[in-house]
Amino acid sequence: MTATTTRHSDRRISPVFVGIMAVTAVTGWATWSGFAEQPGVAVFLFVTAAWIVSLCLHEYAHARTALHSGDFTVGAKGYLTLNPLKYTHALLSIVLPVLFVIMGGIGLPGGAVFIERNRIRGRWRHSLISAAGPLTNVLFAAVCTAPFWLHSLDGVPRDFRYALAFLALLQVTAAILNFLPVPGLDGYGVIEPWLSYGIKRQVEPFAPFGLLFVFALLWVPSVNSAFFDVIDALLRGLGVGDFDRYCGQELYRFWQGTNEYCSVAG
After folding, report:
1. Model-level pTM?
2. Number of H helices, E strands in the chain
3. 70 by DSSP, 3-state: which?
4. 59 is known as an active-site residue
5. How far apart are CA 247 and CA 158, in angstroms?
6. 187-231 pLDDT tens trace
7. What one-character DSSP code corresponds to residue 118?
8. Treating both helix axes as pointing N-terminal to C-terminal, what angle do 221-237 and 158-178 enclose, rounded to 10 degrees?
9. In this structure, are residues 141 and 171 in contact, taking their beta carbons and an 8 Å threshold?
10. Mean per-residue pLDDT of the chain
């Protein structure tokens, strides 16, 4: 298949993605307007749907960059439709990252698109394909934090501000984790083309376990503390305070009950 024979239907936005966007818009409006009887439920649905949207855009960025770099098969695989059900291990690609948000409040790297690397020529192109995904998270984080670092929060409802702060936390953690130079993560994909053949052969068997390795490290208290110190510093630099992030996560976990401190202090 060539660029000229890529079908229009291969790039048509999926109804599944349109549906996720609709949920994001409706629940975002409900959070902003205070229409929902239970604000926590609206925040939960809004942040979860927006997080899935960012996962889809992350993988789309990989696929779109691969298309322009020479892999014309991504269209036939459905990767350009933004349909998360087309990803490798679709269930784990969406459900697992959402579960990590619920349990730990971190943006775990999600879905995977299969790029036929043998069709790509040039080390810079290979690196750019790997970097495109986490750069999307960086852009998403910039959008979420814009009202904070632009000092444009006047008129922004409290619950919506909390939701944006928590969503920003997810995007920043996703970007940091994805850029780690660990086999199996995008950060390693950025540097892999520049490594010697011998090093790549030695590292290759560990690629399927890279994410598990990172997850295990985050369970070590000292590593977890250092990681979140970096995240906190980045978010503070972007104007997102600890209080907003804390209340955003508390509101997101609506099943734990209402946090009166956030309700009164906000």
Report:
1. 0.91
2. 11, 0
3. coil
4. yes
5. 10
6. 999 999 999 999 999 998 888 888 888 888 988 999 999 999 999
7. G
8. 120
9. yes
10. 89
> Which token pair is 56?
């889809």
Q: Give tens-digit pLDDT for 105-138.
A: 788 766 688 899 999 999 999 999 999 999 999 9
Out of 37, 59, 116, 204, pick the active-site residue. 59
- Which residue would you say has higher pLDDT here, 265 or 120? 120
Residue with tokens 């024979």: 5
d(CA 156, CA 33): 10
Residue for token digits 């975002």?
Answer: 28
Ramachandran sector of residue 83 (left: φ over 0; alpha: ψ -120 to 50; beta: rest): beta
Residue whose entry in the numeric block shows the structure tokens 């208290």:
221
Cα distance between residue 251 and residue 48, in whole Å: 13
CA angle 163, 166, 169 (to 5 degrees): 150
